[in-house]
Amino acid sequence: MITQSYARRVMQITFLSLLVGLFLFIFGPVRAQGEEEIVKTKRVSGEISVIRPSYINIIFAREKRRGAEYEAMFLLNDDVKFIRKDLEELEPGDRVEIKYDGYFKIEKNEETGEEEERFVRRVTKEIRFVSPSTKGKLISK
After folding, report:
1. Which of 22, 65, 133, 137 has the fewest Cβ atoms within 10 Å of its own Cβ atom?
2. Total structural domains in the chain?
3. Smallest Cα–Cα separation from 75: which of 38, 37, 103, 107?
4. What is the pTM of this model?
């Protein structure tokens, strides 16, 4: 048996769901139109720190004074082209150059009114072996 309070609660939830759906239907496309996605092809070189079948991490900059390292992760898929060495032959410590497409969204800054780029994702295109490790293995597999 359905009680009156249960029926009232169902009606409230239904009304709120319709209200949220209507809001998203009206204002969702407006926000999407204001954002434009651009692609920039970039290259970065560095030393492999971690290598797995699905991704590779490289250290692309070091600050000796502070002891800081800057590292980037690149996802791997079947479309990635390997030059000079295959994935199985690469080791931590090897120097590589990675070519990738960076995807950015152009958004307007509400405070300044200027357009700004916001990083969305990167897609790895090719990995070129540059040189073997000079220090031996940094990190074991």
Report:
1. 65
2. 2
3. 103
4. 0.64
DSSP type of residue 8: H
Same structural domain for residues 1 and 59? Answer: no
Same domain for 4 and 52? no
Interval 103-141: pLDDT, tens: 998 888 888 888 888 888 999 999 999 999 876 544 444
Assess whether 45 and 16 both reside in one domain.
no
Q: pLDDT tens, 64-77?
A: 888 888 999 999 99
**Do 23 and 52 belong together in one domain?**
no
One domain, residues 102 and 120? yes
Beta bridge pairs of residue 126? 81, 99
Assess whether 20 and 54 both reside in one domain: no
Residues 6+ apart with CB under 8 A from 127: 56, 74, 80, 81, 82, 83, 87, 90, 96, 97, 98, 99
Structure confidence by residue, pLDDT tens digits, 15-57 = 888 888 877 777 665 544 455 788 999 999 999 999 999 999 9
Indicate whether 118 and 57 sit together in one domain: yes
C-alpha span between 52 and 139 (Å, rounded): 12
